[in-house]
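Here is one chain, start to finish.
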Amino acid sequence: DVQLQASGGGLVQAGNSLRLSCLASGFTFSNHAMTWIRQAPGKELEWVSTIYSDGTSTHYANSIKGRFTISRDNAKNTLYLHMNSLESEDTAVHYCAKDWTPVVSRLMRGQGTQVTVSS
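Its structure:
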């Protein structure tokens, strides 16, 4: 079974940083693009970032561009999201997901990790 376990969330003050991790299992991680998505309270799922299978190409939502960096370690089956200059608007449950589709609700995602940014 595909398993995606995100971790690294927490409560931080605005302007600070966090690094999220996602340990993947149950599929050949290095063959798949990976995506971070998030859901803020009372809002729909939002695409955050995608990285190609070999890490050579990355894409970011405008809301986080320049502040977040997606990366992966295929040897460790792990996806990362480095989050800098956090803002209160970044408060959300963050999920890692396998592959990418414009309809983010269709992505296979694992258990998320809560990020809370206090202003």
